[in-house]
Specification:
The chain has helices at 11-18, 24-31, 35-40, 57-60, and strands spanning 52-55, 66-70, 77-79, 89-90, 93-94, 97-99, 105-107, 114-116, 128-129, 133-134, 143-148, 155-160, 168-172, 185-188, 191-196, 201-205, 212-217, 227-235, 238-247, 250-260, 267-271, 277-281, 286-290, 301-307, 318-324, 329-332, 342-345. It is built from four helices and 27 strands.
Length: 349
């Protein structure tokens, strides 16, 4: 019987296999087989990665090791990142999580690589990234964060472009409501979009001057019987606004609006499906990936965390769910934690 010498498989074949591994844990196992397999695996040329979930106590305040959960699994991996202790991490992110504890920085928990950021010179609470933070952004895109000024009670947008030594600070008054703007921001094609939930209009802001360029009125109406959460994100090069409606701690529905313009006069238009896209939502923001990049996953779906109303400590408080826009059905997915997490797409380079 012929025994296959796996260490001497053709380099081109090994390289082709390594570029198809969408779960980074499979990629690491592949690289660990032997020197031949490791040399053929190029991290920079890997397949699109499945998102993972950051799981830590205290609103992602790291008090021990960093705990990460691969999506759609019941596993938790513990990663030792010594200098991450006491960092306040948030997502969603592409490779790097945002640490909003001073001094603020970006952290890749898979490699321990940390990028220092200039201080945001306002007395604020936790920072929330409102675009997909990471190193695969278009080079012209700035890092944009949202926070709340504890003195003036303003919402604060911080804009940092590559090479800047300080943040551009944009203040928005509390007429929007203290909590209504969280999740309703996005940087898209050179402008910042801020949607006011109760006023039902969207401000379009110039990120270089902080001035409002124009306002987009909306026609959708809110039901006072529902708790509503809104998100903005870019999906397939389009700007989407996602509305999650909740009643008595139960998800009622999702609505999606797409920004049309300028040829149609800039307006939000209701859409009923997102084709092969998958939307990933967390507390205040979200992002989109194509399902066709991942075998076995379903497009036209929204993945999100939902808190259950329970007094039993043995029952999970947060569940990972999938909402199918095709049939309006919700399915609970495997998830080994009882806390909502922060999404991160992992990389090791």
């Amino acid at each position: 019987m012929m025994v296959t010498d796996w260490a001497h498989l053709p380099y081109d074949l090994l390289y082709m296999i390594s570029t198809k591994l969408s779960d980074i844990s499979d990629f690491i196992r592949f690289s660990a087989v032997c020197n031949s397999w490791r040399s053929s695996a190029a991290p920079a040329d890997h397949a699109p990665r499945l998102p993972w979930i950051l799981d830590n106590d205290g609103g992602f305040l790291v008090k021990a090791d960093v705990r990460l959960c691969p999506s759609f699994s019941n596993k938790i991996y513990t990663i030792r990142v010594p200098h991450a202790y006491n960092m306040l991490l948030s997502g969603p992110s592409d490779c790097f999580l945002l640490n909003s504890k001073k001094p603020i920085s970006l952290l890749n928990p898979f490699t321990g690589n940390e990028i220092p950021l200039p201080p945001l010179r306002r007395q604020t609470k936790k920072l929330y990234p409102i675009i997909f933070v990471g190193n695969r952004l278009r080079s012209e895109d700035p890092l944009v964060v949202l926070t709340f000024d504890v003195k003036s009670c303003d919402h604060i947008l911080g804009v940092l472009r590559q090479g800047d030594d300080e943040w551009l600070v944009i203040s928005l008054r509390v007429s929007f409501g203290i909590a209504t703007l969280l999740g309703s921001f996005m940087y898209y094609k050179g402008h910042l979009y801020a949607h006011a939930q109760f006023d039902r209009h969207t401000l379009v802001i110039d990120p270089t001057s902080g001035k409002t360029v124009f306002t987009i009125r909306t026609t959708d109406r809110l039901n006072n019987n529902h708790d509503v959460k809104e998100y903005m994100m870019e999906s397939d090069e389009k700007l989407l606004r996602v509305i999650k409606r909740i009643e008595n701690y139960q998800i009622e529905s999702f609505e999606i609006y797409q920004l049309d313009g300028p040829e149609k006069g800039y307006r939000w238009t209701r859409i009923w499906d997102i084709n092969d896209q998958m939307l990933f939502l967390e507390s205040y923001s979200g992002f989109s990936v194509k399902s066709t990049n991942f075998h076995g996953l379903r497009g036209n779906c929204i993945y999100f965390f939902h808190y259950q109303r329970t007094t039993n400590p043995l029952h999970p408080r947060a569940r990972l769910c999938r909402y199918d826009l095709g049939n309006n059905e919700i399915r609970i997915l495997p998830y080994p934690s009882n806390r909502a997490g922060a999404w991160i797409i992992p990389c090791i380079h």
